Amino acid sequence: MSEYEGVWVFSENQPLMLELLGKGREIADKLQTELTAIVLGSGVKEKAEEAVNYGADKVYVVDDPKLETFQAERYLSALASLTSQYKPETFLIGSTKDGKALAARLATRLNTGCVTDCLQIEVTSEKGLTARKIVYGGNAIATITWRTKPQIATVPPRTFEKPEFKERKGQIIQVEAELEEPQTEKVEVKPLEVSQVKIEEADVIVSCGRGFEKKEDLALAEELAKVLNAQVGCSRPLAEDRKWFSEWIGLSGHKVKPSLYIACGISGVIQHVAGIRDSKIIVAINTDENAPIVEMADYIIVGDIHEMIPAITEAFKKHLSA
Amino acid sequence: MCLKQAVDVTQLKVDPQTSRLITAEAPRKISDFDKNALEEALKIRESLGGEVVTVTATAEEAKTTIREALAMGADKAYIIKDPAIAKIDTLTTARILAEAVKKLGEFDLVLCGEASIDSFSGQVASRLAEILNIPQLTSAEKMTVENGEVKVERALEDRYETVKAKMPALVSVTRGINQPRIPSLMAIMKASKKEIVEWNLQELGFTPEKLDASNMTVEVLDVSAPKVERKKIFVKGETAAETAEKLVEALLQEGVVGR
After folding, report:
1. Cross-chain residue pair B232–A277, CB shorter than 8 Å
2. What is the CATH number that goes with domain B5-215?
3. Measuring CA to CA, which residue among A239, A252, A249 is closest to residue A293?
């Protein structure tokens, strides 16, 4: 018997933590072991209770004013102290930018392995826990397993479903941890202006690429989006080079999974494709019939966006108002 | 300044039988994020002086690739080459780089790309700083060095942070931080005279056992191309309106609109 046991989850981002509890519950049930949530912060009783109601059998809470906001060294030392003491077999950590760095540092302190940005995690009979992640810029999926424990995995937001809320009973245990002093100093923190509606949650997306030569042309996409009750997105060049948008869809930006993704004037480089792979139906409108997006699309129109988008908008108007 | 020789991910082939990825024949290049880190290092040197040296751990010949870093302006390059490096995990990579950094002596900054374009793990920078026990500032979108301190701006999921730390420190950079320079012909010619030092792992204190697969923390079981199952139907009518009509009918049939 290994001295390591149980499945743990942690994220400084509570909604992501709840998603991890869903996957964590599934792994724990399969291995017939306990699911434990780690809650760090100041005055976090409610968060701990919430973790129980979303599936945790047990919650270790470190409640300390010093943990009120995320600070890498303090959070790291709290997690390192808990993991060394209680020895979880598996530890899922939310893959925010801070969470990922935290996981890599924790894994280093514990001399163990970490797989970042897991899109699937499974318990297999032969290899134990295995994870899948996108590698080679979206060109391949790697299947990875651990040889050391704890097995640390980071999971991006919206990868797994948030479980059902249920009034449950669980153990909430207050623990003390010695917190290290920060090595960095926050000079300024500004909340980011995030668009009101999240593109990840959109059911239909009209997406614009380099085929849009003038900013005014975006009105064509907006018009179509209005008819479809869709959201407008873009590929990286329109955000990074032309600065018409602040965010983009792709491997380095937002990963989306709408029912319908309409790629207008998007060539479909692999980094973009990696962000839309999970869409149910993909439509490509492009002048180049050999563009890579064609290989990724269900329906392809070879044509000019200036002509085709208004035509499609009109056709939808006709059908959807009927 | 750490550089990875990565697989050029835009030029990969897939074995049609097994759908496994063939990486052996794909060209190699400096991982994109690392070029951004190098550009940042060069800018700091231009305004404050100092020296920019690059360190690369690689299983394969990398001199040609790393010569580009020298052409961009790095002063000197160190390559740690050993076939065993092909199969090592991020922890061992970070340990090797840490030993190399220590061997190089005093430094102000270690710069890394936030992740590599091929394995995209994004762990080496954080693990390296942890081993060196120096402050780490990750995902930098902007950075400045002043009075022995480094200050970076980080765009996180829900906030924008400005963070500073005393040097020596490690900074990992994003693609957005700058546009790496393209070396001139003159610079390329000059680079051929710059020194590339090769180290082996024994010199850094790594025995073959330490690098054995059984001592790795993770094992990659498979790397395959994702299955793409798309319909790939070309929609075409006599006129734009007719084409649009056909598309809309197909999409209504799919049940993905008008819900």
Report:
1. no
2. 3.40.50.620
3. A249
